[in-house]
């Protein structure tokens, strides 16, 4: 009995240095489940603290606010789902490199967990634009390997790339088929997604090659 009481007391207090990462992950796990089940407005810090077995002070000390906690949940899901290949120094054929990148991006975005979080962020954007803005900024950072690669292609004259950041975002939006992935359930096979990304890359490369040839 004394051991159980000690464990609860330890969980509700400030964790040791070794326990802090695990302690934080537990709070984020509980928070994510609550936000997905009840939405942002329907989720309370009281409920999260109770289910996580921590004090409200612990949550506010670490995440500052409910908004900060929600952003941490969203960014963790984004990071966990993005397995972006490093392409900045890749010497394979350009079409193969871009197809690989597009496929990884698409698979990451349509992962059920990331899709649910993204939908929640989009739904709350009108009321909490700062969360949506920060989420978008972090998503854009994940494209940096592609941005660097496209910049190199532009400098080499392989493709006409005037704005690598915009070109990277364009390719990403094309491979995700606009906002369709946010609206409809994903029922495509890996083979279908690969075929889609190959077609998108061909369109992307033809467009930029045409720009170069027309200059």
Summarize the helices and strands and which ones pair or pack.
Elements: H1 2-12, H2 20-38, H3 45-52, H4 56-63, H5 66-81, H6 94-109, H7 112-124, H8 129-141, H9 144-156, H10 164-175, H11 180-183, H12 190-214
Helix pairs in contact: 2-3, 2-5, 4-5, 5-7, 5-8, 6-12, 9-10, 10-12
Which short descriptors sum up this protein?
2 domains; Arc Repressor Mutant, subunit A; 215 residues; mainly alpha; disordered N terminus; elongated; 12 helices; Tetracycline Repressor, domain 2
Taking all residues together, what is the mean pLDDT?
82
- Report strand %: under 5%
Tally the structural domains. 2
**In CATH, what is the homologous superfamily of the largest domain?**
Tetracycline Repressor, domain 2
Number of extended strands: 0
Give the CA-CA distance, first to last residue.
79 Å
Global geometry: elongated
Low-confidence segments: 1-13, 15-19, 210-215
Number of helices: 12
Q: State the name of the first-level CATH class of the largest domain.
A: Mainly Alpha
- H/E topology pattern: HHHHHHHHHHHH
Largest sheet entry = none
> What name does CATH use for the topology of the largest domain?
Tetracycline Repressor, domain 2
Structural Rg: 21 Å
| Protein structure class | mainly alpha
Per CATH, the architecture of the largest domain is Orthogonal Bundle
Helix content: over 70%
Describe the overall structure.
With 215 residues, the chain is an all-alpha fold. It folds into two domains: 22-77, Orthogonal Bundle (Arc Repressor Mutant, subunit A), CATH 1.10.10.60; 84-208, Tetracycline Repressor, domain 2. Helices cover 73% and strands 0% of the residues. The chain has twelve helices and no strands. It has helices at 2-12, 20-38, 45-52, 56-63, 66-81, 94-109, 112-124, 129-141, 144-156, 164-175, 180-183, 190-214. Helix 2 (20-38) crosses helix 3, helix 5 runs antiparallel to helix 7 (112-124) and helix 5 packs parallel to helix 8. The longest helix has 25 residues, at 190-214. The radius of gyration is 21 Å and the shape is elongated. The relative contact order is 0.10.
């Amino acid at each position: 009995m004394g051991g159980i009481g000690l464990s609860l007391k330890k969980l509700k207090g400030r964790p040791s240095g070794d326990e802090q990462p695990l302690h934080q992950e537990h709070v984020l796990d509980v928070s994510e489940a609550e936000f997905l089940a009840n939405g942002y407005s329907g989720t309370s810090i009281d409920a999260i603290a109770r289910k996580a077995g921590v004090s409200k002070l612990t949550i506010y000390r670490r995440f500052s606010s409910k908004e900060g906690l929600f952003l941490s949940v969203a960014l963790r899901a984004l990071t966990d789902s993005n397995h972006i290949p490093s392409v900045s120094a890749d010497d394979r054929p350009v079409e193969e490199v871009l197809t690989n990148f597009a496929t990884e991006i698409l698979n990451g975005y349509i992962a059920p967990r990331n899709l649910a979080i993204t939908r929640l962020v989009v739904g709350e954007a009108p009321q909490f634009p700062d969360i949506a803005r920060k989420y978008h900024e972090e998503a854009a950072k994940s494209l940096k390997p592609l941005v660097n690669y496209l910049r190199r292609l532009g400098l080499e004259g392989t493709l006409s790339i005037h704005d690598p950041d915009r070109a990277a975002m364009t390719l990403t939006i094309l491979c995700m088929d606009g906002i369709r992935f946010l609206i409809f359930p994903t029922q495509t096979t890996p083979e279908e997604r690969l075929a889609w990304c190959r077609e998108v890359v061909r369109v992307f490369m033809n467009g930029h090659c045409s720009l170069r040839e027309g200059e």
